[in-house]
Design a protein that fits this description.
The complex is a heterodimer of chains A (432) and B (269).
Chain A lengths: L6 E5 L9 E8 L2 E9 L6 H4 L8 H6 L6 H16 L5 H32 L4 H7 L1 H22 L8 E2 L2 E2 L5 H5 L2 H19 L13 E4 L10 E4 L4 E2 L4 H4 E4 L8 E4 L9 H8 L5 H9 L12 H22 L15 E9 L2 E9 L5 E7 L1 H18 L6 H13 L5 H4 L5 E5 L1
Parallel strand pairs in A: 2-14
Antiparallel strand pairs in A: 1-2, 1-14, 2-3, 4-5, 6-7, 7-8, 9-10, 11-12, 12-13
Chain B lengths: L2 H4 L10 E6 L5 H8 L4 H7 L1 E4 L12 E7 L5 H13 E7 L1 H5 L11 H8 L23 E3 L6 H13 L10 H7 L5 H5 L15 H4 L16 H10 L4 H8 L7 H12 L1
Parallel strand pairs in B: 1-2, 1-3, 3-4, 4-5
Helix pairs in contact in B: 12-13
The chains are: A alpha+beta (432), B alpha/beta (269).
């Protein structure tokens, strides 16, 4: 199965990703002639039916784009709308939103590191099989995930499609005592996250480095969630309002998700690796130290190490949650008034998988005239294809079955969320 | 040689096979299963996860004892796929508002879907989608519909358990109002004049929104016998426009017939 003969790597249903997609790679010898990441998740047409809805409905409606990262959708929608309306939120609300995002990152990263991605590195089909040999690890993972979900619940009532986030603030904010209850669990979670960094760093990583354009938010004093300028390692430094001038979306026949490029340059990478490389200096000391101890320092260009970077972000999210809870005082009012007003607003926030862009135009009655949403996975989609073109070429010596699994693993490094991107994963490698 | 010695050792009882299938949806309802952190290892000990792409690379062919279906039908391919899945599943359970009512993507059902596709995609000719987003039960017989956007994970575990042992699941069909009363919560509609869909909405969330100082927005869909006409008048008394009431009914369960009828009546008013 080596070398000369051509082959096709084909995965009809990519597993352990959110949503439905397939992968098709056509090869002749070591040459990859075609790579298609086919997203067949059916289109749900959110941007079309948001038109005519009141802006206050957008956070709950757009949350339904993704059951894994509903908070990201709520946050991007809310910030874009607040900008359109010219609303300033209370500093206490701003802090609570950071805590809300910490919960989603902990829940989503714990799910991805242990339940979706680790089985690839250890040679298991899934976490259930993995649990037979590594039960204490899986139990710890589940507890970590639960703690993330618990933060989301405390603020938003439930973990999936929480109900409290609103334009201007929250429908209801927690009492100080309610958040204090989370502290002992979070202290445990911080230790477990430090262990996750050490544990993931012992996995075996393929030797695969690429020259990426990393794109992430950057804030003057914080590791980014909801605010900051959009920057890259190739000189990009823009406000969210300039996003559509600098990035273009295009539509390829094989996919129900639009692909994104930096205008005049090409594919780029968003998510944990980009955030870590561009914002290492903004990580709290405990997270920086944990990364350096396992030899992880920016720039990390090996995609496969993103599992370790995710663990470092778990450390950050736990430490940040503890900081916020320590500082929290309830705001005078849960939210500021959001009167109907004509306007256009854009916002970018950092979903667990990378930047999520929203733009809304609103009329004088508060109804949405147009909406645009660019999820992280559609931004990474072209980069995933570019990576596979390089990576599959290195796999000529492997059997088709092994090469296929390795390509799937590479795709899962992105923690792709296909439900978001169409709004994915089959792999096909064709060797002729 | 006695016949006994020829007999094979009794086989370990085979575990019931579960398949999880996805149609147009956000993945949130199937994630509920992975979100049942305390129960997950117990559940997977009792059943065989035969098909669940979100969680495993193992994809076993049917038949399956229980099929859990998430999402609505929005493509020709999916309309065919659900027929095949139904044939392979002894018990077919639909989970969530997309599978039981068409989901938020059913908002297309009142509009021109081609215009919708042109509004979102640069090359609409690459997109193939149906004019309607429809619940699974419009295509095949369904054994149980579990409501919610998202579903309640404890109700899902109750439903799987009940199905495995062959009893009726304990899943109440009354309204969110009953859940408020059981929590001894003050009615926000009566006491504070906040428009609330609680009286016509299926229980299951534990009356979350009213406990967060906002009106229920109907994510569990219509209760068994909803009086939507009466609630519409109440909303109007509270100062809501016909358009606002129509939008209230027209969200995650818009295509459920009771809510559909109520929203269309508001449009005509």
């Amino acid at each position: 199965m080596t070398g000369r003969g051509g082959r096709t790597i084909k995965v009809d249903t990519l597993a352990r990703v959110e949503g439905e997609g397939a992968l098709y790679i056509k090869m002749a010898g070591n040459h990859v002639s075609d790579v298609k990441l086919r997203i067949y998740e059916p289109p749900r047409l959110f941007e079309a039916f948001l038109r005519g809805r009141h802006f206050s409905e957008a956070p709950d409606i757009t949350a339904r784009i993704c059951g894994i990262c509903p908070i990201a959708y709520q946050m991007s929608a809310i910030h874009a709308i607040e900008r359109a309306l010219g609303i300033q939120i209370a500093p206490e609300v701003r802090l609570l939103r950071r805590l809300f995002y910490c919960g989603e990152w902990i829940e989503s990263h714990a799910l991805h590191i242990y339940m979706l991605h680790a089985p690839d590195f250890l040679g298991y089909q899934d976490v259930i099989e993995m649990a037979k040999d590594h039960r204490p690890v899986v139990e710890k993972a589940l507890r970590l995930k639960k703690i993330g979900n618990h933060i989301v619940q405390s603020l938003g009532g439930r973990e999936i499609h929480p109900i409290s986030a609103a334009v201007g603030g929250f429908h209801k904010v927690p009492a100080k005592s309610q958040l204090r209850e989370l502290v002992s669990d979070l202290e445990w979670a911080l230790e477990a996250s430090l262990e996750a960094v050490r544990w993931t760093s012992t996995l075996e990583f393929p030797d695969f480095e690429q020259d990426y354009e990393f794109v992430a938010l950057r804030h003057p004093t914080e590791y980014p969630f909801n605010e900051g300028r959009l920057v890259s390692n190739r000189g990009l430094d823009i406000d969210a309002a300039e996003y559509e001038d600098r990035f273009a979306e295009f539509h390829v026949k094989h996919s129900n998700a639009l692909q994104s490029v930096v205008r005049g340059r090409g594919s780029y990478l968003v998510g944990p690796l980009a955030r870590f490389n561009l914002n290492f200096d903004k990580l709290p000391e405990v997270a920086q130290k944990a990364a350096l101890e396992v030899g992880l320092k920016p720039p990390v260009k090996n995609l496969f190490r993103s599992i370790v970077v995710r663990a470092v972000e778990l450390v950050f999210a736990c430490a940040e949650a503890l900081r916020v809870i320590g500082e929290y005082e309830p705001p005078a009012a849960p939210r500021v008034e959001a009167p109907n007003r004509r306007g256009v607003g854009q916002a970018i926030t950092e979903a667990p998988r990378g930047i999520l862009y929203h733009r809304y135009a609103i009329d004088e009655n508060g109804l949405i005239v147009s909406a645009k949403i660019v999820p992280p996975t559609s931004q990474n989609q072209k980069r995933i294809e570019d990576d596979l073109r390089e990576y599959a070429a290195q796999l000529a010596a492997w059997s088709l079955e092994e090469a296929t699994w390795k390509c799937e693993q590479a795709v899962r490094c992105y923690d792709p969320c296909i439900s978001c991107a169409t709004h994915f994963l089959k792999v096909v490698i064709e060797r002729d | 040689m006695s016949s006994d010695s020829k007999r094979k050792a009794p086989k370990a009882p085979t575990k019931p096979k579960i398949g999880v299938f996805k149609f147009a949806s956000c993945d949130g309802c199937q994630l509920s299963l992975l979100d049942a952190e305390d129960e997950l290892l117990g559940v997977v000990g009792a059943v065989e996860i035969a098909y669940f792409p979100e969680a495993t690379r193992t994809m076993l062919k049917g038949p399956y004892d229980i099929g859990l279906v998430e999402g609505s039908v929005t493509t020709h391919h999916d309309a065919e796929r659900i027929q095949e899945i139904r044939r392979k599943c002894k018990t077919l359970i639909t989970i969530g508002a997309c599978a039981t009512a068409g989901g938020i993507q059913a908002l297309r059902n009142w509009k021109d879907v081609d215009e919708f596709v042109r509004a979102v995609y640069a090359s609409p000719q690459f997109i193939s989608t149906l004019k309607l987003s429809t619940p699974i039960a419009e295509h095949v017989p369904v054994d149980f519909e579990l409501r919610g956007c998202p579903i309640n994970k404890y109700q899902l575990i109750e439903l799987i358990t009940a199905t495995l042992v062959g009893r009726k699941p304990n899943i109440p069909t009354y309204s969110v109002c009953m859940e408020c009363k059981r929590k001894a919560a003050v009615c926000i509609a009566v006491a504070r004049g906040i428009p609330c869909l609680g009286p016509v909405t299926h229980a299951g969330c534990g009356a979350l929104c009213p406990s967060y100082d906002r009106g229920c927005y109907g994510c569990y869909g219509p209760m068994e016998t909803p009086n939507t006409a009466s609630l519409t008048s109440q909303f109007r008394i509270l100062g809501q426009s016909a358009d606002q009431v129509s939008r209230a009914f027209r969200s995650f369960n818009a295509w459920a017939w009771q809510f559909r009828k109520a929203s269309e009546e508001c449009e005509r008013a």
